[in-house]
Specification:
Layout: E1 7-8, H1 16-37, E2 42-48, H2 71-88, E3 92-98, H3 103-115, E4 118-124, E5 132-138, E6 142-151, E7 159-167, E8 173-180, H4 189-209, E9 220-225, H5 233-240, E10 244-245, H6 246-253, E11 263-264, E12 269-271, E13 274-279, H7 292-306, H8 312-319, H9 329-338, H10 351-361, H11 371-378, H12 380-387, H13 396-405, E14 424-430, H14 433-436, E15 454-460
Helix pairs in contact: 2-3, 4-13, 7-12, 7-13, 9-10
């Protein structure tokens, strides 16, 4: 995380358990009121529970030790996590870093969630990673109409899970997305996270076109560990497209001026990276969705111009290694590597992604890209003219976002207090009290994870 977005941990509170107990009591009371009303409110909780394979449990003798070396410790911690979850009683639970590779851990979560009337689905990360997502839905309040995994197939092996749920009180449907975006390893990580979000939105667009939904606009909640703050590119892009951040909206209503935090990272910094975004039907002026390919083509154009190549003929020649007037897939991939789009400390495009881009460029499907097909996608001269405009200060991430946004809602200012038919209202959203105050709690207050549990209540309008 850039230091400008981090808040250093403050001095510990002298009131250890009272704050968490107060938060828990308020949570239970709010849930009880909703249950008593029998209304169609929906509570969504997101929680990165810190996979035991990643939780440091080192000693002076063995600084690299992980909690997974002592499974009993990991199970005890997760029992406490499940106690907190059951107290909060969310209708939809979105967990990140679930240790699905361990059989005892799977059995623990399966038993506890089943006893609490949840149906759960696990979405493993790709490439054989030991952790992934767990999404659980409370069966006595919601019906799962559809559930899908979204595999980004990217350098971070990241995934998402999409659940279409219907209230048993009134039948109203909501799309809930659980995800965990790439950790910020370097300056290109934000570009990769943007690409991951574009893939989610593109999937949602295609989902809403299917006969079961038939183009109907449903409320969309995207939540999880975004590994980026409220000043980051993903946050800025989503809010520009009509999404409302639930916690920030509620903090604003309550007049809280403190920057909240939700994660204590391995650098000892407190940062706010866990989010819950709501997009209401009334904000979906066009159809929701984004083309990750269009965004990456924009990134490629910008990278080429950065190399000092400012016209289409010169750019095509750079791609066309054997000068035969057409581009093969190998030439396309080789040039992408040449301009720094692949490998370490890069935007991390994989061969499979580059192949998909090549096929999108090859309009007639003859296995080659001619000059006209190249210009149609690249337009290097147009990008060079745009970047030379002294009135613009857009960077590559902004070019990516603006290109993807051509497929979605036109950016504008949104009034979050204006609602339309089918919209949801954010009734409340919260974290443990100390995190709302901008500090990481003491171990006596909270020791369940290096992330805090975030939950929000949504009510129909």
């Amino acid at each position: 995380m850039p230091s400008s977005t981090a808040v250093r941990a403050r001095a510990p509170s002298r009131a250890p358990t009272r704050r968490l107990a107060t938060t828990r009591a308020r949570t239970i009371a709010t849930r009880a009121r909703a249950d008593a009303r029998g209304d169609a409110s929906v509570r969504v909780m997101t929680f990165n529970v810190l996979c035991p394979e990643y939780k440091r449990a080192g000693t002076k003798e063995n600084d690299d030790a992980r909690e997974s070396a002592n499974v009993e410790d990991a199970l005890r911690r997760n029992e406490k996590i499940l106690d907190l979850i059951c107290d909060a009683s969310p209708d939809v639970l979105c967990v990140q870093e679930f240790w699905h590779a361990n059989e005892a851990m799977r059995e623990l979560w399966t038993r506890r969630l089943r006893e609490a009337s949840y149906d759960a689905a696990v979405t493993p990360r790709t490439s054989g990673r030991c952790d992934g997502l767990l999404t659980a839905v409370k069966r006595d309040r919601l019906e799962v109409k559809d559930a899908r995994d979204v595999l980004f197939n990217d350098c971070g092996d990241r995934v998402a899970h999409v659940a279409r749920v219907a209230s048993k009180a009134n039948g109203r449907e909501t799309l809930v997305v659980n995800t965990h975006l790439l950790f910020p390893h370097n300056e290109n990580s934000s570009l990769i996270r943007l690409r991951e979000v574009f893939k989610i939105l593109e999937f949602l667009r295609e989902l809403q076109r299917e006969p079961a939904i038939g183009g109907k606009k449903l409320p969309i909640v995207i939540t999880g560990d975004f590994n980026g703050s409220s000043s980051g590119r993903v946050y800025r892009f989503l809010t520009s497209q009509g999404f409302t951040n639930a916690l920030d909206a509620c903090q604003g209503r309550e007049g809280c001026a403190t920057s909240w935090v939700s994660h204590l990272n391995h650098h000892g910094e407190c940062v706010g990276v866990d989010h819950m975004f709501l997009l209401n039907p009334s904000k979906q002026v066009l159809e929701i969705g984004a083309s990750w390919k269009e965004a990456v083509f924009a990134m490629m154009r910008a990278k080429i111009v950065q190399q000092g190549i400012v016209d289409d003929v010169a750019a095509f020649k750079e791609f066309d290694a054997n000068s035969d007037g057409s581009l093969t897939k190998d030439e396309f991939i080789e040039f992408a590597n040449k301009i720094g789009l692949c490998g370490e400390k890069s935007p991390g495009l994989l061969t499979a992604e580059l192949e998909a881009l090549y096929e999108a460029c090859d309009k007639d499907g003859n296995g080659e890209i001619d000059f006209q097909e190249f210009v149609q996608r690249m337009d290097i001269k147009g990008m060079a003219d745009l970047t030379s405009d002294p009135n613009l200060s857009l960077d590559i991430g902004d070019f990516m976002a603006s290109s993807a946004a051509d497929q979605v809602v036109v950016s504008q200012s949104w009034d979050d207090n204006v609602f339309g038919e089918g919209d949801l209202q954010i009734e409340c959203a919260t974290l443990p009290t100390s995190m709302l105050e901008g500090r990481w709690p003491t171990s006596e207050e909270f020791d369940l994870s290096d992330h805090g549990p975030l939950w929000a209540d949504f009510t129909p309008r």
